[in-house]
## 1
Amino acid sequence: MPDALAPSSAPSAPPTPPVSLAALLAREELGLRRIAGPEDADLHWVHTSEMGDPYPYLLGGELLLTAGVQLTDPDHYVSQVVAAGAAALGFGVAPVYDTVPPALVAACDRHGLPLVEVPPPTTFTAIARAVWRLMAEARHRELRRVAQAQQGLATAAARPDPVPAVLRQLTARLDGAWAVLLSAEGAPLATAGRPPSPDAHEALARLARVVNPPQPEPTTSEPAAPRTAPTGTPTPPAVPPASRTAPATGPGPKTTPAPASGPSPKTTPAPTPPPGPAPRTTPASATDTAGGSHLAAYALAGGQRLVLGVASDRREAGDHTIAGVAVVLLSLLTTPHQGAAESARAAALVRLLLGADAAEVAPLLGAGGWTVVHARPVAAPAGPDPLAAAALGAALGSALVDATEEGVVRVLLAGDARDIEPQPGWTLGASSPVPASDLPAAGIRAERAVRRAEATRSPVVRDRAEAGEGLASLITPDEARAHARVQLAPIADSPALTSTLRTWLSLHGSWDRTAVALDVHRNTVRQRIARCATLLDADLDDADVRMDLWFALRWL
């Protein structure tokens, strides 16, 4: 059964971790010795009592110390101590007993309660002081662990792939746990760590629905008119869904019937039953255990209804606090920023869908020219990563981002991108600024630029301005296009040849770098260039020929 944790807006300090009985027994100056029961237990505090029945005064988790002043029935005494939840029993030898009563030893073995013999020189105060000291040391270690985890998670959030990086850091800080970011529908968006057993995986999916319950289907608020039964007897109106069931958290739906009231339906329609109990607040986090794993689910803020799931082999005192830090960071990374800019983008999309021209819509998104940026991750992508694409867009200062199936991210920037900065983990290619009507052509040039960047191992390559400056400005665009169509006619119908020739010329005839840019074998590049030379009847070793072809390719 999952346990719901109280909602919190920020991670709190970790609770004081318990002290193991083994650590206390290891303090040689105390001279303690376990003589019955399990070898270890978690001690949360120390309590001394000489009551015949200490049950009403125990909270659970104590090391109960006694000298047996009122010990008359050891079995009943131990059963009451176990029922109260005490962690262990310490029995002081002298002044009442010279040795630990054998009946008490047998009772502790029978009920599974650790029994510790306290020698005469050791005072109960010394034991309590030792426990508090061990707790303070454990508390200090846990606070240091949490502080280091916070620093590591914050550093991960600044990486080019922030969401996967935060999940990887979280699993490392939780000693090899498995972490998954789930969508509102329960589909995994990103994972890190070693997956748990199938049973734990299914239990974690159910636990995620506790903090992110399915949204109810919309229903009409007006009650239905009384229906007439076949016998002519009116029947009561349908009970609204809110009155039929009471929302409940937990792995399975729990329903509470609404109280029935009113006269018999045989004469007049029954009034609408009173509304059921108010819906309970959905918990921000919940925990459970399954398949030998400790499970936890945390709801992210931001309205996306995302859930962070964690499965670990063990649960430490500070794990909830560390996971809370990850929840805050993931919420910030995945929350869309609403505002005037978002409204303008929505308006532009609506106009495009209704048939408006791109040039007409562009002013809603920004003034001046536009720059297209193509980005490829340095590491081979496994597919489109919308979260990493959004993080890249935020770093470049734009929310107009598209992650393609090939793993390429396309970003649309308003204005000039001459001051674009390299982004860690990405290879960028940027077009020159263009008006909205030339955005398709700018996208092609940005794609060529990112290929050159990969071939030359440069973090950023900026496309040069379109013809219109320098010597090229001496020829009108119409004349340049006509010249290009005539000169390149033999290869114009082959995109592979024109693309290879353009890339090869842009890379100064380098076979290897052209192969890298086009993602083909270098022999394929040689064959295509030789084919171009044959079809064009041109000597590609001649610098004048290369310059003429390069000029023509820019207008094709």
Note: The chain has a mean pLDDT of 80.
## 2
Amino acid sequence: MKLDIKKTVQMGFGFLSICAFWQMYNALIPLILTGTFHLNETISGVIMAMDNVLALFLLPIFGSVSDRCKHKMGRRKPFICMEQLQQLS
């Protein structure tokens, strides 16, 4: 099996963008919580910690539900569309 450089670089940029997004998220959300919502740093830290704890349990549950979905649009697209409609309202 030969190493495909093009696919390896594409995957690398994908992981780079994910890491960059999470760095930005972890830097900006506490600033928004303390600056906009006037929460103290302790409460902001608790919210950020709970975000990670909830994700630890909820992501596998939602993934399991998504894997069992047999919608004509596919497995993931119905959930993506529902989320987009929720964001618009």
Note: The chain has a mean pLDDT of 93.
